[in-house]
Amino acid sequence: MWVLLLLPFVGLLWVPFYNFPEPMLLGFPFFYWYQLAWVPITSLLIWLAYRRRTPDEAPQISQKLERSKAP
Amino acid sequence: MADQIEWVALSIFVFFFALVTVMGFFAARWKSGPVSAHLDEWGLGGRQFGTWITWFLVGGDFYTAYTVIAVPALVYAVGAYGFFALPYTIIVYPFVFAVMPLLWKTAHANGHVTAADVVHGTYNSRGLELAVAITGMVATMPYIALQLIGMGVVIKAMGLSGELPIIAAFIVLALYTYSSGLRAPALIAFVKDIMIYIVVLVAVVIVPAKLGGYAAVFAAANDAFAAKGGATGLILKPSQMLPYATLALGSALAAFMYPHTLTGIFASKSADTIRKNAILLPAYTLLLGLIALLGYMAYAANIKVSTPNDVVPMLFKTLFPSWFAGFAFSAIAIGALVPAAVMSIGAANLFTRNVWKSYVDPTISHAGEAAVAKIASLVVKLGALAFTLFLPVQYALDLQLLGGLWILQTFPALVFGLFTRWFRAEGLLLGWAAGILWGSWTAWSNGLKPLATIDLGGVSYSFYVGLGALILNVVVAVIATVIVAIVAPSQTASARS
Question: I need a labelling partner for B419 at 20 to 30 A (CA). Which of B124, B152, B305, B497 fits?
Answer without folding.
Answer: B497
